[in-house]
Amino acid sequence: MANEGRIRVLVAKPGLDGHDRGAKVIARALRDAGMEVIYTGLRQTPEMVVNAALQEDVDVIGMSILSGAHNAIVPRVAELMKENQMDDVLMLVGGIIPDQDIPGLKAVGVKGVFQPGTPMDDIVQFIRANVKPHDAVA
Ligand code: B12
Question: d(Cα 30, Cα 74) in Å, to the nearest integer?
């Protein structure tokens, strides 16, 4: 299969804000870097995000949150991921995330937090370095 072994990423927009530019820019950059990207579209609940990740069998869940609701949304997504034994799925968050909130997000399982101005290359490199493709042969 042509797509075998490619990193699969769910770019998700949980919450109520309509800021989708960052999510779309990230989706395009990751596709250009050779990854398979599924974009959820706007206004997803944590349940919708985790269900989409399960259905699509992704290696990465990348959430774009500019509403300020990350401290409510991300722990709930983390909880649902635990319930579904998604320990091998890399969880990333980008958007308007104040520095003081980063330790709390990391404590619930977020591996990388990307604030405005992060170069695309840094994000691509981070994913390549940290993802564990689950169909990979060990
Ligand atoms: C453009 C913009 C808008 C546009 C959105 C257009 C669109 N379709 O996206 C419009 C004009 C519609 C808008 C409206 C509003 N906005 Co506005 N907006 C912005 C602005 C100026 C830039 C956002 C942007 O597009 N940046 C460019 C993209 C490429 O950057 P980015 O999303 O940050 O993404 C980068 C990183 O964050 C990261 N990243 C982001 N997502 C992801 C995901 C993954 C997986 C990864 C790995 C990385 C990653 O990587 C990207 C590249 O570096 C910001 C201020 C700012 N400087 O950020 C305010 C801002 C986000 N808006 C804000 C507000 C308050 C609003 C309004 C509520 C204003 C109002 N009272 O009406 C409304 C809400 C509308 C709505 N429906 O939600 C606030 C949010 C405050 C907060 N969260 O604490 C901000 C921060 C402005 C401010 N300083 O107050 N907005």
Answer: 22
Q: Is residue 99 part of a domain?
A: yes
What CA–CA distance (Å, rounded) separates 138 from 14?
33
Q: Within a domain: residue 135?
A: no
Is the CB of 64 inside a 6 Å radius of any atom of ligand 1?
Answer: yes
**Which residue in 66, 79, 59 sits closest to 23, CA to CA?**
66
* Residue (of 80, 38, 57) closest to 134 by Cα position: 57
Structural domain of 100: 8-130
Instruction: Report whether residue 78 contacts ligand 1, using a CB cutoff of 6 Å.
Output: no
CB atoms within 10 A of CB 3: 7
| CATH number, residue 70 | 3.40.50.280
Its pTM surpasses 0.90 = yes
* pLDDT tens, position by position, 54-104: 999 999 999 999 999 999 999 999 999 999 999 999 999 999 999 999 999
Ligand 1: atom nearest CA of 11 is 45
Measuring from atom 35 of ligand 1, which residue has the nearest CA?
A: 116
